[in-house]
Amino acid sequence: MIIVMTKDATQEQIQGIVKWIEERECRAHLSQGEERTIVGIIGNNRPLEQEPIERLDGVERVVPILAPYKLASRDMQPAPTHIRIGDITVGDRQIMVIAGPCAVESREQIIEIAHAVKEAGAVGLRGGAFKPRTSPYSFQGMGLAGLELLAEARQETGLPVVTEVMAVDQVSLVAQYADVLQIGARNMQNFNLLCAVGKINRPVLLKRGLMNTMEELLMSAEYVLSCGNPNVILCERGIRTFETYTRNTFDVNAIPALKARTHLPIMADPSHATGHWEYVEPTALAAAAAGADGLMIEVHSHPEKAVSDGTQSLKPERFAELMKRLRAVAEAVDRTL
Ligand code: PEP
Ligand code: MN
């Protein structure tokens, strides 16, 4: 449940409520709005339901949070979460565009693509060093060498780096190199991994699982938040349906439906959603029109030679075209790029 404080509640009264909550073996989560403060009660608050909370000083009313996720809920925090990545703020007016290859393949490859996407207006570089592949015989990523190349590309271009962490024992290593830790679709419900990234001080990009509901995605975000990391960005990357003309089915509904329920920023990944480069641009534009706070786009200078996901990767010049059209859509929905 949440406690809505009166408009004129003093700091002393707010701290009094926090203490009152902690004395009852729960945690307090403060959300300081422009008008008033909301205090969320985290933990087993069943026994507290019997207590006359509304009689405490400075309290206006008590509202139950019916959703199973609490920290991720808009009831707990009505204002959108803003996350700093490099020089930009995600979750505010700017639509953050992160682009780069599916996987880091070589120094030449990642540096060339990093320059190209930066020139076209991307504000972040993506690239997998640890790759979750369906087949154990497929390229698994360059590992540490890939992380080092990403750091080099950041050094050259100034672009912050987003890369996937696949396992608990990789978290501290990947966090030494990455500006944002990506949790891939296949790991969305790896709860130990979620808690491990919840304990470090780096924004987390949490991708929706192939077969997961929005509520399950929010519950996974709740793991990261409740383990201590408030900087979670959700990512809609398409879900598996009966359809075969596209790799996945891009769930554009998820953007407004998640926004209605959570204060966390929401990105879209039209590359993995569609699986075909021709469909990436229209889907990206649709995501931006629907309110996405960011886009993640796969770009490769030679898609025909890419070791993974070449069919869905845009050539740099096509990515630059996409950025032009995206600018127009962003303007139409009162956002910037
Ligand atoms: C990726 O972004 O490289 C990736 C593997 O995506 P997903 O986890 O969404 O399949
Ligand atoms: Mn990929």
Give a topology summary:
Layout: E1 2-5, H1 11-23, E2 27-32, E3 37-42, E4 59-63, E5 83-85, E6 88-90, E7 96-100, H2 107-120, E8 124-126, H3 144-157, E9 161-164, H4 171-177, E10 180-183, H5 191-198, E11 204-207, H6 214-226, E12 232-236, H7 254-261, E13 266-268, H8 270-274, H9 277-289, E14 294-298, H10 316-332
Parallel strand pairs: 7-8, 7-14, 8-9, 9-10, 10-11, 11-12, 12-13, 13-14
Antiparallel strand pairs: 1-3, 1-4, 2-3, 5-6
Bound molecules: phosphoenolpyruvate and manganese (II) ion.
Residues 102, 128, 132, 184-186, 207, 237, 272 line the site of phosphoenolpyruvate (PEP).
What does this entry look like structurally?
By secondary structure, the chain is α/β, with parallel strands linked by helices. An 8-stranded parallel beta barrel has the order 7-8-9-10-11-12-13-14, surrounded by 7 helices. The chain has a 4-stranded antiparallel sheet with strand order 2-3-1-4, with helices on one face. The chain has a two-stranded antiparallel sheet with strand order 5-6. It has 10 helices and 14 strands. The model has no long low-confidence stretch (mean pLDDT 96). Helix 9 (277-289) packs parallel to helix 10. Strand 12, helix 7 (254-261) and strand 13 form a beta-alpha-beta unit. The chain has 2 domains: 2-63, Alpha-Beta Plaits (2-Layer Sandwich), CATH 3.30.70.1140; 83-332, TIM Barrel. Bound molecules: phosphoenolpyruvate and manganese (II) ion (MN). The site of manganese (II) ion has 5 residues, from loops. Residues 102, 128, 132, 184-186, 207, 237, 272 line the site of phosphoenolpyruvate.
